[in-house]
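Pasting as-is:
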Amino acid sequence: MPVQTTGRNVSNGVALGSLILVMLSTAKILFTPVGRREPIRLNYLMTARQGQKYDLEFIYKLGYDDGKSGEAFGSSLPEDVILTGNPSRMQQTQRRMDDSSLDWEDYNPSPPLKTRSNLGMGTLLSMFALFRFGKELITYPDGRVIRDPNLIWMKLKSLEPWRLGLIFMSLYRVLGALGSFLR
C-alpha cells in the first residue's frame, strides 16, 4: 500500500510508525495548554489618598511635567505612591545612604544568564538536509556506494545553483549551532 501512494518502497511497519508519530505530535500540540500571562495590575497607582484615586493619566502628567521642567525623575509623585509602589525607594527615603558606606567586599553579582542553545528544529532540519545531500552524492540510485572520487566530483559540479545555495545555508546553520557549543 505505501508503495502505491508514495512511490517509495517502504515497509508497512515503517509507514505505520510514521503515521503514529505524526498523530502523537499533533495530539501533543493540540492538547498542550498555552501559557497565558496575567494582566499587569497597577495597584500601586490606585492607592487611596484622602478618598482620591490616582489614574494612569494623572501619574503620567506628573512625570511629563517633571521632564518638561527639568526636575528629577519622580520628584513630583505623591509620597504614598512612592512608598507603596517601590519598596526600594521607601528604604531610600527612610535612610539616605551613599555608596561609600556599602561593603563592596561582600558584593556577589548574579551569574550571567545562560544563552539559549541554537540546536533547535531548524538546525535539526538542516542536519537532515545535509545528511540527505551527502547520501545522494556518494550513492548510486540502487543504493551502492560510489568509490570513484571523479564521479562524486562530477555529481557535485552538476548540481543546480539553488540546491547548492540551500546546502551552504544548511551548513552555515549547523556550523553556527556547533560553534555555540564550543564557546
